[in-house]
Write a structure and sequence with these properties.
The complex is a heterodimer of chains A (427) and B (170).
Chain A lengths: L22 H7 L13 E6 L11 E7 L2 E8 L7 H5 L8 H5 L6 H16 L5 H30 L2 H22 L8 E2 L2 E2 L5 H25 L3 H7 L7 H7 L3 H5 L7 H4 L20 H25 L17 H6 L1 H13 L6 E9 L2 E9 L5 E7 L1 H6 L2 H5 L6 H9 L3 H5 L1
Chain B lengths: L3 H7 L5 E6 L2 E6 L4 H10 L5 E9 L7 E8 L6 E8 L5 E3 L8 H12 L2 E3 L51
Parallel strand pairs in B: 2-5, 6-7
Antiparallel strand pairs in B: 1-2, 3-4, 4-5
Classes of the chains: A mainly alpha (427), B alpha/beta (170).
């Protein structure tokens, strides 16, 4: 009796017979590269992500390797695409505010500000001074929160887990502040068209001041751990260099662009809110590498703290919400007690603000760069088109260029230094 | 500050239509002119950054789709918008990647969402959605709930048919 009684008859395909499954592989293999291959024998295609802790979410990078050197890389997005631009077209301007929290979920309140400011520009609505100061304050708190996350995650990817824990400890204090200030810890939805949900309370001012007093020590601790750490410096210095001209052409913004030696900051260049009344520095470095991007964020935390202190000192009295019954939601107490407010509230919630026909674009300097909304209105309460200009999306565009010629172990450092948030990049 | 009239002085044959985008300078140019206008804007007027390019479905018989480029001059900090339109049946416009490399992903996104293809784009693939997806979701005739069955869902031969989403289960 034969040992093999039921032999499989399926012909074995050879590798050459199987066509490349996806267009992304073709795109990768046909990509020009400045790196020359040694010998094709060591060539290999490696898939990084989308489920990889160092990709900060669901970023997928396809790598073409020669040994451990990256010859070329192709980035793929879309694993977190939720269609927020389509959703925006099917809801009123107010209804969309909670959705903006879910874009850059590390600094949600800055997204709120960017969105409502675009809508206010469309509605030609002026927010009172007090409201503007509170918005600046919130944006800077969000920036600190985001930069701590960026520093912590970059350090953790390289191996310094302690810094990550310390950074998260500081962010925990920020969440407590947001809890008191806005009523919610994480996805705050604090802003409203024409102002914000509630005024800043004395409790939260006290908490913010206490946080700022301890912030310097926290930043110093992180600096003591990393700034002269030989392992950290060797992993980051001279890695992932983005030349200034190239960064500009790619549309990079925010700390990444400033680390490439270009002092571009919307807060100073095209001031919005009350930034022109505040004193702060635009931190710029000229080394263009991972370490420079780390240092820009490191120093920006202190600048943000400076701005918040000035906001608290200068905070004017008065309204925090614009007075415009036709376009700004009335206070809840008034809705329950007055007929006129009840009618306005009903109309605003059900049909939205009847924005004038037109198009506007407004951008703010969010923690990751220029965050803007392009709104097209056809005169109804729903936007006809709402386009998010998300900084993470554009910054990631430079990733495959940065990875070229690097080693595999540099990937995590480079991705960490770009600081992408996939919720924002994928919309 | 730059205005599109300055551009017309250099090229009197150029035709454009001024548009208002929230007080910023904006103009609509024809498909044939856009490449020349873009390279002039970059080389002669210093608009070195392309911040965004967005598609927009106007839902009209003629010139249904509109692509808006969001340009910025880093030196003067001025922001302008450059628009171009195309018909539904002839949905393609020249790509500006040869002028600004940063337009690459923005144009891919506009293609992904509206089906407007960009001539001369080095890598005209979908940005977010799978390559085999047949629809363009930000067109106004695409329903908000999506098209059932348009995306292949993972399923297993032995799956309970009641729960197998790919085969019409709940």
């Amino acid at each position: 009796m034969s040992l093999i009684d039921d032999q499989s008859t399926i012909a074995r395909p050879t590798v050459d017979e199987v066509p490349p499954r996806q267009k992304i592989v073709e795109a990768l293999m046909s990509k020009d590269s400045t790196v020359t291959l040694d010998t094709l024998e060591h060539e290999m295609v490696l898939n990084l992500g989308p489920q990889h802790p160092a990709t900060h979410g669901v970023l997928r990078v396809l790598l073409r390797l020669d040994g451990e050197t990256i010859v070329s890389a192709e980035t793929e997005l879309g694993y977190l695409h939720r269609g927020y631009e389509k959703l925006a077209e099917n809801m009123t301007y107010h209804e969309y505010i909670p959705h903006t929290d879910r874009l850059d979920y590390i600094s949600p309140v800055a997204n709120n500000v960017a969105y409502v400011m675009a809508v206010e520009k469309l509605l030609q609505l002026e927010v009172p001074k007090r409201g503007q100061y509170i918005r600046v304050l919130c944006c800077e708190l969000a920036r600190i929160s985001s930069h701590f996350m960026a520093l912590g995650a970059l350090a953790m990817d390289i191996g310094a887990l302690t810094v990550f824990v310390w950074a998260l400890r500081e962010r925990e204090k920020l969440y407590d502040i947001f809890d008191v200030l806005t009523g919610v810890r994480f996805t705050v939805s604090y802003m409203r068209i024409g102002g914000m949900a509630q005024d800043i309370s004395d409790d939260s001012i006290t908490m913010i001041r206490a946080f700022l007093d301890g912030l310097d020590d926290a930043v110093n601790d992180i600096g003591a751990m990393l700034n002269k750490n030989r392992i950290f410096l060797e992993r980051t210095a001279g890695i992932g260099i983005m030349e200034p001209q190239e960064a500009l052409e790619l549309g990079w913004t925010g700390p990444n662009l400033r680390a490439s030696g270009i002092a571009a900051d919307l807060r100073r260049d095209n001031p919005y809110l009350v930034y022109n009344e505040l004193d702060f520095k635009v931190i710029t470095r000229s080394e263009c590498d991972v370490l420079a991007r780390y240092f820009v964020r490191f120093e920006e935390i202190r600048e943000s703290a400076k701005i918040i202190r000035q906001c608290l000192d200068k905070l004017p009295n008065g309204d925090f919400m614009a007075r415009d019954a036709k376009r700004v939601l009335p206070k809840k107490g008034e809705v329950y007690s007055s007929m006129e407010e009840l009618i306005n509230d009903f109309m605003l919630v059900n049909f939205g603000q009847a924005a004038p026909v037109g198009e506007v674009y407004h951008a703010i300097e969010a923690a990751k760069g220029e965050l803007g909304w392009y709104l097209v209105s056809n005169g109804t309460g729903f936007p006809w088109r709402s386009k998010i200009r998300s900084p993470s999306f554009v910054n990631l565009q430079g990733l495959s260029r940065l990875l070229e010629g690097c080693m595999i172990s540099d990937i995590v450092a480079i991705i960490g230094s770009i600081d992408p948030i996939m919720g924002e990049a994928d919309k | 500050m730059f205005t599109f009239e300055d551009l017309q002085q250099k090229n009197p044959a150029l035709e454009f239509q001024k548009v208002d985008v929230g007080g910023d300078e904006a103009a609509l140019v024809s498909r044939n002119d856009i490449l020349e206008v873009a390279s002039r804007l970059k080389n002669e007027f210093g608009f070195d950054q392309v911040m965004d390019a967005l598609g927009h479905d106007r839902m009209e018989k003629r010139d249904r789709f509109e692509i808006t480029y969001n340009l910025r001059n880093h030196t003067t900090k001025q922001r302008i918008f450059l628009k171009v339109r195309c018909d539904e049946r002839d949905a393609h416009v020249p790509s500006l990647v040869s002028v600004w490399t940063g337009a690459n992903w923005h144009e891919r996104e506009a293609y992904d969402m509206f089906g407007v293809s960009f001539d001369g784009h080095p890598d005209m693939r979908r940005m977010y959605l799978p390559d085999d997806f047949e629809y363009y979701p930000l067109r106004k005739d695409f329903p908000l709930m999506g098209v059932p069955g348009s995306l292949p869902l993972p399923h297993h031969e032995d799956a309970d048919p009641r729960f197998d989403l790919a085969n019409g289960g709940e």
